[in-house]
Design brief:
Structural class: alpha+beta
Number of helices: 7
CATH topology of the largest domain: Heat Shock Protein 90
Keywords: Coiled coil, Kinase, Membrane, Signal, Transferase, Transmembrane, Transmembrane helix
CATH architecture of the largest domain: 2-Layer Sandwich
Largest sheet: 9 strands, antiparallel
InterPro entries: Bact_2-comp_sensor_kinase (IPR050640), HATPase_C_sf (IPR036890), HATPase_dom (IPR003594), His_kinase_dom (IPR005467), Sig_transdc_His_kin_internal (IPR010559)
GO molecular function: protein histidine kinase activity
CATH superfamily of the largest domain: Histidine kinase-like ATPase, C-terminal domain
Protein name: Sensor histidine kinase
Shape: globular
EC number: 2.7.13.3
Number of domains: 3
Radius of gyration: 29 Å
Length: 577
């Protein structure tokens, strides 16, 4: 059968990814559509009780078996039900390949779309509409989101085709080469009962640029505006509008934002090829958001060399076909002379300041001897803190890699892809904060949300983040990664495998004290394991070192565990302004 999963991260949230497993009449050798109808359902995996959308294929000579699938409890799924009472079934050309496409939003509904590049017919049926209820339903067809080919009309064509045992509604056979249509079916007595599908016959799927927005210190401009683009690019492709000779100094820009022509049925992934001498590597940077924008962080191309950005339509089976890619080559040169001079002046000023303070320190050496000893003690504690944090990072990474391996071993490719995307984002954020003694509570909250989302994919629990409205997280600084070990402990030792498992993370003030709490409804700690896992051990050691660094011992960790759950609270006394 064919799985598909919603993704909830910017552009990923609109991607339609399918994983093939035991599909009847589905040719695994060439990934063709096969002699089937696809039906959109929601089902619970028997092995792990995860509820998710599932596309079931049924043979086009035994279409009635979709009802058997809904009632079947002997396979991999239980509690299978149609995504909509309409029960739309889609049949494409059996030889069609690369038909997976994006999800298109329609108010509260999500309509899945299919790419039909061979201009073949599509057939649409509704197994949920029969002789007893067909008078309650209407359907319509809209072309290119602008022309109503068929206005809302009664459903009147009932058939017994494709091996059916009871009459079902035949919505139609459609073919609009070079265009796209959306077919919607709804209950005239209750508009909330509706389902739709998008068919796209357009063959030109190469990404197109609308504009490139370049941000420089104190200004920004459209790269195509040669009057303001500082000579970074002079020629552009007449079809894709991509720059052909983009070239700029390494320290001259703050960001590059690429705006792609928005196509409702398309989602674009982005890769970066870096070439420095004989070395060449490729990075996956993510996907353009649902509005067609992609932000390229200069962090990935801040050294001189030649690069290429590649935009490609995301698909279950990628096509590395040059006619389908948007390739933007560019060169990063050495730092501009003006910036080099500025850095030289800053260096000279810095050296002057260092010499001044060195002389001052020598002059006051005797009086500052005690201060120097305290400073050395502080540095030693900070070094110990970095050592503890350096153990937390690989501990987190090894756990995440184990989770990804577990998903891959279970053939959960969609979940693994989602997990990898979250993991990449979280790893970047963790590395960025690795040398910082403090980050904002807002950043810590985002890290906690990303990590919970990752662990949710692994263990199948639910979670809630509660930030007290009295707090302003953007101006409150805390040591980084305080919450991550506590969340890991709650997920792994608390709610893993527990039906109805839930984790709640709260941040609340108590006067000038900040309280961070992680609560789970798991079975609690056993008496002989009250110290928890490795992450909790490192957290205790880290709090001990933080209290040596900050006067008054402001950090306190308290664990309360019972058979009904565990609550771990980190208190930061007199921490709030």
């Amino acid at each position: 059968m064919i799985y598909r999963k919603h993704l909830f991260y910017s552009a990923i949230s609109m991607m339609f990814l399918l994983k093939v497993s035991l599909g009847i009449a589905q040719d695994k050798r060439n990934n063709t559509f096969g002699n089937v109808f696809l039906f959109n359902t929601n089902a619970t995996e028997k092995a792990n009780r995860v509820r998710q959308p599932v596309y079931f294929p049924v043979s086009d000579t035994a279409i009635y078996t979709i009802f058997d699938q809904l009632n079947n409890t002997s396979g991999n799924f239980i509690a299978t039900e149609p995504a909509s009472p309409v029960m739309l079934g889609v049949k494409l050309n059996p030889a069609l390949m690369y038909f997976y496409s994006a999800v298109v939003g329609s108010i509260t509904q999500q309509y899945y779309s299919f790419l039909i590049r061979d201009s073949s017919d599509v057939v649409l049926v509704a197994m949920g509409i029969n002789a007893s209820n067909y008078k309650d339903f209407r359907y319509r067809v809209v072309e290119n989101d602008s022309v109503e080919l068929i206005p809302w009309s009664p459903v009147t064509d009932l058939r017994m085709d494709y091996g059916a045992k009871q009459p079902f509604a035949f919505i139609g056979t459609f073919n609009r080469p070079g265009k796209w249509i959306v077919v919607e079916v709804c209950n005239s007595k209750n508009y909330a009962v509706r389902e739709g599908v998008v068919f796209d016959w357009r063959t030109d799927i190469q990404p197109r640029l609308e504009q490139v927005i370049v941000e420089v210190p104190g200004n920004y401009f459209n790269l195509a505006f040669t009057g303001a683009n500082k000579g970074y690019a002079t020629t552009f492709d007449s079809i894709t509008h991509a720059p052909k000779d983009l070239r700029f100094p390494a320290d001259s820009i703050r960001s590059l934002t690429f705006q792609l022509k928005k196509e409702e049925t398309r989602v674009y992934g982005v890769h970066l090829i870096r070439m420095a001498g004989e070395k060449r590597d490729t990075l996956y940077l993510g996907m353009a958001d649902r509005h067609g924008y992609f932000f390229a962080d200069p962090l990935y191309f801040n050294t001189p060399g030649k690069y290429q950005l590649i935009f490609q339509r995301q698909s279950r089976y990628p096509e590395w076909n040059e006619s389908l890619l948007l390739r933007i080559p560019f060169e990063v040169t050495g730092a501009s002379p003006g910036n080099t001079l500025a850095r030289g002046l800053l260096l000279a000023l810095g050296l002057t300041v260092i010499v001044f303070f060195l002389g001052f320190w020598l002059y006051r050496n005797k009086a500052k001897k005690k201060m120097q000893q305290l400073s050395q003690q502080k540095e030693a504690v900070q070094l110990q803190l970095r050592t503890v944090r350096s153990q937390l990072n690989p501990h987190f990474i090894f756990n995440a890699l184990a989770s990804i391996q577990n998903l891959v071993n279970k053939q959960a490719i969609t979940e693994a892809n989602h997990y990898l995307s979250r993991f990449a984002s979280l790893t970047r954020a963790t590395l960025n904060s690795s040398e910082q003694d403090m980050i904002s509570l807002e950043q810590e909250w985002k890290l906690a949300d990303d990590y919970l989302a990752m662990e949710q994919l692994r263990f199948g629990f639910t979670y809630t983040l509660v930030m007290d409205e009295k707090l302003n997280p953007g101006i409150i600084d805390i040591p980084p990664l305080l919450l991550q070990p506590l969340i890991e402990n709650a997920a792994k030792h608390g709610v893993a495998g527990k039906p109805g498992g839930h984790i709640t993370v709260t941040a609340a003030p108590a006067g000038k004290t900040l309280q961070l709490t992680v609560t789970d409804n798991g079975p609690g700690f056993q008496p002989d394991n009250i110290n928890g896992g490795f992450g909790l051990k490192l957290s205790r050691e880290r709090i001990y070192l933080l209290n040596n660094l900050y006067p008054g011992e402001p950090f306190v960790m308290h664990i309360q565990s019972a058979a009904t759950g565990t609550t771990i609270t980190i208190t930061l006394n007199n921490w709030l302004p």
